[in-house]
Design goal:
The protein has helices spanning 27-40, 54-66, 80-90, 107-114, 118-133, 151-164, 180-193, 213-223, 244-253, 269-280, 301-309, 337-346, 353-369, 375-387, 430-442, 486-511; strands spanning 5-6, 8-11, 44-48, 71-77, 97-104, 139-144, 168-173, 201-206, 227-230, 260-261, 393-403, 406-416, 419-427, 447-455, 464-472, 475-483. By secondary structure, it is an alpha/beta fold. An eight-stranded parallel beta barrel has the order 2-3-4-5-6-7-8-9, surrounded by seven helices. The protein binds 3-methyl-2-oxobutanoic acid and zinc ion.
């Protein structure tokens, strides 16, 4: 049998993924995700869009300085200023730094968005690649909205940028419009009609607007693409991008008919998925392939029986192969620091001493309230104590009085930029009173789009996890908080969202 072709995996969780509504990551969070991508053995990590803001620049620089192994890419438009700024951040990765520059090539984008003639777009593309090549040989060029681009023009641009020195040409399905057979034909057309196509790797970048991002990426691989751009949990602009875990597991599971492979350490997929949810607050739907909570759950008796007799009756891949460990009851009141640390590491959380101490204290407090501590509890502890770092707003205390004959009253004490403030409010129930008090203290006018409370595990002593979605001035954020007391969890979630909103607003100001 002929050898499988290695497909390069380009992860854009930190760039396109961060464009998901509600997702925003600070520099520390991005670095944490990048370390997990390193463990996954990703070929290329797109760490951000350096010119977009000071925060984005710093994040790309930090990832370039700290991550060894994967190549580190930074996105830039096809203009000299963007490219120079991108390289300023990427140079810290040395030869592993990749400049990723793009311009739209479809008639609709050129006419309405760029307001440029095709000849001008072609000229800018070539100029951009040449400038990028003056810094590094590792240059990727993307024809934005490629799947709605006239094929002869697409071929002309691809040929020209390869001639100018691009080592990777990306053919994005920017609006998730194409279908697999059509995408296959586009890649095939380029293979057949671009004379120098073999001098570059063809990359594909699919959006999931019609739910076809993974299927399209597979079709493109079959037509000759050598790199796939994807994100953990499929997050990304609008309906998201090609899901990394799905793509990688398709290649692994169907190697019988797909002669391709990736370098990804698939046992790190579940930890990566959990970590990303913890960091962004974006939950994975339970029925999501590979990493959803039900992906390996067999509900029907007949299935359970089959799996007990022989796993392969209903399991096409093993839970272990994607890093899913049995959710055993791990820890309790008497568990020590060592066991706690070990379990966190198995779940993908590597904490420094200081963070570990904080998380361990919270674990001990929780173990006093709750007999059984599950993996989900540990994720929530890490999220609350380590990840949801209060940048601007911090909750100090809440006291609530409520009952069937009482008007709910909340007294909230917070720190805002280090200064202690306190107020009380009445409300239509204790959560309403608490959120009103926080709104008053923070003078915030964000609209509450969603409030959701869930029990993290079973039992009446379970921790409640609250998720809130806030929107202000077109920016949407998600905040989460957990506690055995749902009023406290609500306050934490709301404050977490306000902190994220303030980071987003700050970044927006910087980019203006
Ligand atoms: O979807 C898209 O076209 C992109 C490019 C910038 C690669 O994200
Ligand atoms: Zn995209």
């Amino acid at each position: 049998m002929s050898q499988a072709k290695a497909i390069r995996i380009f992860d854009t969780t930190l760039r396109d993924g961060e464009q998901s509504p509600g997702a925003s990551m600070n520099i520390e969070e991005k670095l944490r995700i990048a370390k997990q991508l390193q463990k996954l053995n990703i070929d290329v990590i797109e760490a951000g869009f350096p010119i977009a803001s000071e925060g984005d620049f710093e994040a790309v620089k930090k990832v370039a300085q700290n991550i060894k192994g994967p190549e580190i890419a930074g996105l830039c438009r096809a203009n000299l200023k963007d490219i120079d700024r991108a390289w300023e951040a990427l140079q810290h990765a040395g030869e592993k730094g990749r400049i990723h520059t793009f311009i739209a090539t479809s008639d609709i984008h050129m006419k309405y968005k760029l307001q440029m003639e095709p000849a001008k777009v072609l000229e800018m593309a070539v100029k951009a690649v040449k400038r990028a090549r003056s810094y590094t040989a590792n240059v990727e060029f993307s024809c934005e909205d490629a799947t709605r681009t006239r094929l002869p023009f697409l071929a002309e641009v691809v040929a020209a940028v390869i001639d100018a020195g691009a080592s990777v040409v990306n053919i994005p399905d920017t609006v998730g419009y194409t279908i697999p057979f059509e995408y296959y034909n586009i890649i095939k057309y380029l293979k057949d009609n671009v004379a120098n196509i073999d001098k570059a790797i063809i990359s594909v970048h699919c959006h999931n607007d019609l739910g076809l991002a993974v299927a399209n990426s597979i079709a493109a691989i079959q037509a000759g693409a050598g790199q796939v751009e994807c994100t953990i949990n499929g997050i990304g602009e609008r309906a998201g991008n090609c899901s990394l875990e799905e793509l990688v597991m398709i290649l692994k599971t169907r190697s019988d008919i797909l002669p391709y492979c990736s370098n990804v350490v698939t046992e790190q997929l579940t930890p990566a998925s959990r970590l990303l949810s913890t960091v962004t607050g974006i939950m994975v739907q339970p029925n999501k392939a590979i990493v959803g909570a039900n992906a390996f759950a067999h509900e029907a008796g007949i299935h359970q029986h089959g799996v007990m007799m022989e796993k392969s009756t209903y399991e096409i891949m093993t839970p272990e192969s994607v890093g899913l460990k049995e959710n055993v009851l791990v820890l309790g009141k008497h568990s020590g620091r060592h066991a706690f640390k070990m379990r966190l590491e198995e779940l993908g959380h590597e904490l420094d001493e200081d963070m570990l101490n904080k998380a361990f204290q919270r674990f001990k407090a929780l173990a006093d309230l709750k007999k059984e501590i599950f993996d989900e509890d540990l994720d929530a502890i890490v999220a609350d104590e380590v990840m949801r770092i209060p940048d601007k707003y911090k909750l100090s205390h809440i006291t609530v009085t409520c009952g069937s004959f009482a008007v709910a009253t909340a007294t909230v004490q917070m720190e805002i930029d280090g200064e202690a403030v306190r107020t009380a409010e009445l409300g239509d129930g204790p959560v309403d009173a608490t959120l009103k008090a926080i709104r008053k203290l923070t003078k915030n006018k964000a609209k509450l789009l969603q409030y959701m409370v869930e029990a993290i595990t079973g039992g009446t002593d379970a921790q409640g996890e609250v998720t809130v979605r806030l929107s202000e001035g077109g920016r949407t954020v998600i905040g989460r908080g957990s506690s055995t007391d749902i009023i406290e969890a609500s306050a934490k979630a709301y404050i977490n969202a306000l902190n994220r909103l303030s980071v987003k607003t700050h970044r927006l100001m910087e980019s203006l």
